[in-house]
Amino acid sequence: MEANEIAKLAQIASVLEVSGYPKPGNVHRTRNFDDMVFEDFIISGVVIGDTIREATTQAKTIGDNYEKAELGKFILQAVNETDKWIANNTNLGIMMMCVPIACAAAISDNFDEIQSNVGILMDNTTVVDAVNLYDAINVADAGGMGDQEEFDVMSEKAKDELRANNQTMYDVLEISAGWDRLASELTSSMPVCFDIGYPCFSSLKEESINKATVLTFLTLLSQVPDTLISRKYGDEVAQGVSDKVKELLKFKEDEDFLDKLNEFDDYLYKNKFNPGTTADLTAASIFISYLASEF
Q1: Does domain 3-294 have CATH number 1.10.4200.10?
Q2: Where are the domains of the chain?
Q3: What is the pTM of this model?
Q4: What was the pLDDT predicted at 89?
Q5: Among residues 227, 240, 241, 182, which one has the least CA distance to residue 25?
Q6: Do 91 and 82 meet the contact criterion of CB atoms below 8 Å apart?
Q7: Burial tier of 156 (Cβ tally within 10 Å: 0-12, 13-18, 19+)
Q8: Residue 147: pLDDT band by 50, 70, 90 thresholds?
Q9: Band of the pLDDT at 146, cuts 50, 70, 90?
Q10: Cβ contacts of residue 133 below 8 Å, gap of 6+?
Q11: Are 281 and 197 contacting, i.e. CB atoms less than 8 angstroms apart?
């Protein structure tokens, strides 16, 4: 697939994810937060295009030298570009997911190769990629990722330690995989996105893109407790939110399902339970679905 097309699909996926409503607990077209608004996410979805295009163009030239994909460089580049336009961390997680997916698509001859190629690219990340990821996290000021002693991205010595220990981007994400779902996905060839999110969105998008987005988000959250909530409030609270979503989905065919969704959205918003990791997984799942349609 051509780099221009992959870039457009990544932009579409980013914009569709935030446009889904009411997507409980997150910013969407009818819900703003005090520190970030719907338009912030639309802007960030648009400005990633050049970076994805550059990343996929480069990926097509690497042959079997997979380390030359430079995933960390392009994650950092996307975050820096976003930082020029808006003041919030809106897309670090999305870029951590979508850059490897985009580069994997660029080196794949068919859709079925993309998931395994994500794994190959991640296995071949470098120390430089890890350093760039640390810089991206710091630019985005991503809450929670630096709270673990083993992954102290805010430390002045952090990057020197990476170099001294020869730790790649894969290595540092593997360390954090136990408490961060995105890290877990990136070090295991993205089973949640490919096996749960993508099939769900694909089965519904012809009926309604908004319905597909919201139900994909809910399906993911019902099966995979959100680790952003876990880091802020504990695993028990995160599991409780997922259990509530499981109950909610039992009513998805009811006429008053929208009312129930809005009530749940209000509940999460009032309690500041923000399933931000699930939103990133949703965007990646949408991206995969559109890639599948276009291959």
Answers
A1: yes
A2: 3-294
A3: 0.95
A4: 79
A5: 241
A6: yes
A7: exposed
A8: very low
A9: very low
A10: 72, 75, 76, 96, 169, 172, 173
A11: yes
Residue 144 has pLDDT above 70, yes or no: no
Whole-angstrom distance, CA of residue 161 vs CA of residue 131: 10
pLDDT of residue 156: 63
Exposure of 232 by Cβ count < 10 A (0-12 exposed, 13-18 middle, 19+ buried)? middle
Residues 228, 275 contacting (CB under 8 angstroms) = yes
Distance CA 200, CA 54 (A): 30
CB 45, CB 15: distance < 8 Å: yes
The CA distance from 97 to 34, in Å, is 26
CA 281 to each of CA 124, 192, 225, 241: distance values in angstroms, whole numbers, following the listed order: 22, 8, 12, 17
Q: Give the Cα separation of 10 and 287 in Å (integer).
A: 6
Q: State the residue for tokens 């876990």.
A: 230
Taking residues 189-200, report their average pLDDT: 98
Query: Average pLDDT, whole number, for the chain?
Result: 94
